[in-house]
Here is the input.
Amino acid sequence: MAITLTAQDKDTLRTAAYGAVSLMAAADAAGSPHKVATHGSIALTSATGPVGHVLAEKSKIKDLNGKSAAELADHVLPALTTAMTLLRKQDPAEAENFRSTVGVALDAGMRAHKGEPGPALTEMYRKIAGALDAA
Here is the structure.
């Protein structure tokens, strides 16, 4: 089934996916935030299907310059829920592809962390998963 995404829909998907990786990096501020961000972003580039094409597009992603994790979360967590909602309406399989892609990126970010992930990183993972499941 083909899906139709507006420019705004695509912006929402990119904000949600790359924003989730940014939130994980922000939660690992005392550890290896750059490694978390790098590994998570690389994982997003491995996405396939319509979601993969959207995430591979070269464009500026808005609202990812928050001055705090809270400010960033104000934009990213709703974008995750919105992305899942709009994809589920058009193609439930593609919604699952998006959820899986973000999950792989989060897992890659968690593995980039030295040692066992701390409570802040684990809690941010939980919040992101909750936003994905809220749709």
